[in-house]
Write a structure and sequence with these properties.
two-stranded antiparallel sheet; alpha+beta; 10 strands; about 15% strand; about 220 residues; 8-stranded mixed beta sheet
Length: about 220
């Protein structure tokens, strides 16, 4: 069931570990199937290098496990994914990582501002990467803590925990966005360090909403 989606989610999970975005079995990933409404999620407590397609878990949005042929449990944070899908019907994939710089600001409970224009990739309505209030991992409180943030931005932090990004298309898009969260956090960190802790100038939210493909570029019409 949903073998193609399973492979995509598995490949991104492996990539996240290889690129250092998730260490020590941390983080989790999911993608929704538009036809059934089911979600494919990564299993709990498996080293990504050992992950196989058949290890992926299929669930519905009521928390029921539909398919887990190897008997593995879905990630303990599956309810957070489910809440996101329910809150944002447009979202088709969720990526949650524990990358270094993003998690540093999550520990500080400090939103990351738009120090560079790449913030526009996150559809951040307030021109920042917000921080969801603390919730113990695997709990209903954690799942519900993300509601405001996922409506504000496609990328956000979990206080004292890590980062999350969502995408309207697929898991590759969600992973790209969570990578932007990490890159923006790293740039902000280094800017603060170079600037002696002084806050840098940032781009206003309204400026981030103005991007469009340059109209001066013209394409020849097919004959």
């Amino acid at each position: 069931m949903l073998e193609e989606i399973k492979r995509h989610v598995m490949d991104v999970a492996k990539r996240a570990q290889d690129e250092g975005m998730c260490k020590h079995k941390s983080g989790n990933f999911s993608q929704r199937d538009p036809e059934t409404g089911y979600i494919v999620v990564t299993p709990s407590g498996v080293d990504r290098k050992d992950l196989q397609v058949r290890d992926m878990v299929v669930m519905d949005l009521d928390g029921n496990v539909i398919e887990n042929p190897t008997g593995l449990k879905p990630t303990s944070e599956a309810m957070m994914h489910i809440v996101i899908y329910k809150e944002r019907p447009d979202v088709m994939a969720v990526a949650h990582t524990h990358s270094m710089y993003a998690t540093t600001f999550a520990v500080l409970n400090k939103p990351v501002p738009a120090v560079v224009y790449e913030m526009f990739n996150l559809n951040a309505k307030k021109g920042r990467i917000p921080v969801a209030p603390y919730g113990r991992p695997g709990t209903k409180e954690l799942a519900e803590s993300v509601v405001d943030c996922v409506h504000e931005s496609d990328g956000f932090l979990l206080q004292a925990h890590g980062s999350v990004a969502v995408d309207e298309k697929d898991i590759e898009g969600a992973y790209l966005k969570v990578s932007y969260v990490e890159e923006l956090s790293e740039l902000y960190y280094h800017t603060l360090s170079v600037n002696g802790g002084k806050e840098p100038p940032v781009l206003p939210a309204e400026e981030l909403q103005k991007w469009s493909y340059p109209k001066e570029i013209h394409f020849q019409k097919e004959k």
